[in-house]
Design a protein that fits this description.
Chain B: Belongs to the RRP4 family. Chain B: Keywords: Cytoplasm, Exosome, Nucleus, Phosphoprotein, RNA-binding, rRNA processing. Chain B: Residues 75-147 form the RRP4 S1 domain. The complex is a heterodimer of chains A (291) and B (293). Chain A is 27% helix and 31% strand. Chain A is α+β, with helices and mostly antiparallel strands. By secondary structure, chain B is of the alpha+beta class. Chain B has a domain at 38-72: RNA polymerase II/Efflux pump adaptor protein, barrel-sandwich hybrid domain (OB fold (Dihydrolipoamide Acetyltransferase, E2P)). In chain B, helix 3 (228-246) packs across helix 4 (253-262) and helix 4 (253-262) crosses helix 5. The relative contact order of chain B is 0.12.
């Protein structure tokens, strides 16, 4: 993660502020910064979304490709994640600097989605054992101001909502080999049900309190954080501890409860916004990257 | 607690004064300034095919035969006498390297800081070894530019009691072009906080010290918790500064104060919402126009 240097006195100021539930920008400990979401920003993908959370900007593109299903689960498709930390975000990511962070983020995403309910993988199957849809989810970090996990998970959920997978039908030709035909109509596609896609909430331990949506300065004052991925019903699909400091079991329990509460509250406004954006249809003013 | 999510909208900076398109002296890179060969080319220009062309986006300045282009958004170019707020990045043999948002790190020589107690003597080897006790990597200081080296790096000094290491507070990093040059950059705002508007774009907000204690020049950092009311004032000021910077309003004590006053109706955390920012900045610009007009 990009780091900023903070002086001792600034750390003390931030610590006392969090203790009194008044952070540097006036937020409480469980408030998020201003979020802006736009889908369908990249034209040559099957689904895309751009999320700006305060000063953190993340772009997700999803491409659907036909591949062979995994041998253990022949009637399911799968998702492949790749996170690219672009040098645009911070000079630390230049060259191979962002690789470590990128692999850590991708591995966490694999863990988060590694369950039967997040995405209906059976709907991605074309013919059992032979063909299935593989969704390549590519995440690009454009700007980094803390709280990458949350922004990435919201962007992935928005991009999955926006994904249009073309409908195929299989026909057998003369020799009995299966042939896959894509329908001619570009609007004839299948959408994914993203109700159960979880959102990640990062809780950082600063002093004795835990804080949601930290900025880089606040992150410099915290030694340990917990990430929890929560679905809209409050089910936790994955938890992970980051950072070199230690967390005692009681605070982990408290943080998990807080994370579940905050995570559950994220889904409703997100789905409402996505549906509202979709209902605007062609009248929506596309802002893109130069807004 | 619920996150405020919305669709993005195209942001237009609020501007009540004359539209920028009417000004004839703004150029972008590649614009031809003049085809007359009698002029000398200054910074920000180059000669292309006997035509003087701009290489940066900014306004054209002409002094007799010299034409230069002053860029609108640039790194801090220090002049002697500027007040800057910087962060120490390195502790070297007899000096500190300070980051001030310029092209090169600025330098603070050991001989340019006050010794504790205000002694006046030659710096010894022992002083060199205890440099880190005064300023470490990551510390914030306020200083004045003493001179400019030939390569453009700034040499600073904290030879007055009002400069030195900064204690508890909030740093806001903005563009240097937005800070207005004034007689003094240290202000005690009537709303209950103090501000240092560094010429390099770094603005430091801190709670007003109770009594003007024997200005130790920053040797003693007060780590007592700051009261909630002071904190709120500082957070509000910080958000107001970000709102003004987003709409490219020139920053000086009066504009910051007017913005603070226009924002009292809103909650501190709401100030950063786009529509609230627009409203506050519009009110501020109106007040400023009334004041000047």
């Amino acid at each position: 993660m990009a780091t900023v240097k903070v002086s001792e006195a600034e750390k003390v100021y931030i610590l006392h502020g969090i203790r009194d539930d008044l952070r540097v920008d006036g937020r409480g400990c469980e408030d998020y910064r201003h979020v802006e979401i736009e889908t369908d920003v990249v034209s040559n993908t099957d689904g895309s979304a751009k999320v700006t959370l305060g000063d953190t900007a993340v772009l997700v593109g999803i491409k659907a490709d036909i591949g062979k299903p995994r041998p253990m689960v022949p009637n399911e498709g799968y998702l492949e994640f790749f996170v690219d930390c672009s040098a645009n975000a911070t000079p630390e990511f230049e060259g191979r600097g962002g690789e470590e962070l990128g692999t850590e983020l991708s591995n966490t995403l694999y863990k988060v989605f590694n369950n039967k309910h997040s995405v209906d993988l059976k709907s991605l199957c074309i013919s059992a054992g032979e063909h299935c849809w593989v969704l390549y989810v590519d995440v690009l970090l454009l700007q980094c101001d803390g709280n990458l996990y949350d922004a990435i998970s919201v962007a992935i959920k928005a991009a999955l909502f926006n994904t249009k997978i073309p409908k195929v039908h299989i026909s057998a030709d003369e020799e009995g080999a299966k042939e896959i035909e894509l329908s001619d109509d570009p609007y004839d596609c299948m959408r994914l049900d993203v109700e159960n896609v979880p959102c990640i909430v990062t809780l950082c331990k600063v002093g004795h309190r835990h804080v949601v949506d930290v900025t880089l300065q606040e992150k410099a004052c915290s030694v340990a954080s917990l990430i929890i991925s929560v679905t809209h019903t409050g089910t936790v699909t994955c938890t992970r501890k980051l950072g070199g400091g230690s967390l005692d079991p009681e605070s982990i329990f408290e943080m998990t409860e807080a994370g579940k509460r905050v995570g559950k509250a994220l889904h409703a406004p997100l789905m409402k916004l996505l549906r509202q954006e979709e209902s605007l249809g062609k009248t929506r003013q596309k802002v893109g990257f130069l807004g | 607690m619920a996150a405020d999510m919305r669709l993005p909208t195209i942001q237009k900076p609020v501007s009540l004064s004359v539209s920028a398109f009417d000004r004839k002296d703004l150029v972008v890179p590649g614009d031809v300034i003049t085809s007359d060969t009698g002029f000398m080319r200054g910074h920000g220009t180059y000669v292309d095919d006997d035509k003087l062309t701009a290489s940066v986006a900014g306004e054209v300045q002409r002094v007799d035969k010299l034409i230069c282009v002053r860029p609108l958004k640039t790194r801090f170019n220090g002049e002697v006498g500027d007040v800057v707020v910087g962060r120490v990045t390195e502790v070297q043999q007899k000096r500190w390297k300070v980051e001030t948002n310029s092209r090169l790190d600025s330098i603070l020589l050991l001989s340019s800081v006050n010794l504790p107690g205000g002694e006046l003597r030659r710096r010894s080897a022992e002083d060199e070894l205890t440099m880190r006790e005064y300023l470490q990597e990551g510390d914030l200081i306020s200083a004045e530019v003493q001179s400019v080296f030939s390569d453009g790096a700034l040499s600073m000094h904290t030879r007055s009691l009002k400069y030195g290491k900064l204690g508890q507070g909030v740093l806001v990093q903005l563009s240097p072009s937005l800070i207005k040059r004034q007689k003094t950059h240290f202000h005690n705002l009537p709303c209950g906080a103090s501000i240092i508007l560094g010429n390099n774009g770094f603005v430091w907000l801190y709670p007003t010290p109770e009594q003007q204690e024997e200005e130790a020049g920053g040797f003693y950092t007060n780590l007592e918790p700051v009261g909630l009311s002071d904190r709120e004032v500082i957070s509000r000021l910080r958000n107001c500064l970000l709102a003004l910077a987003a709409h490219k309003v020139l920053l000086y004590d009066t504009s910051v104060l007017y913005c603070y006053e226009s924002s009292v109706h809103h909650q501190v955390k709401d100030i950063l919402k786009p529509e609230v920012m627009e409203e506050i900045v519009m009110l501020t610009q109106q007040k400023l126009l009334e004041q000047e007009g």
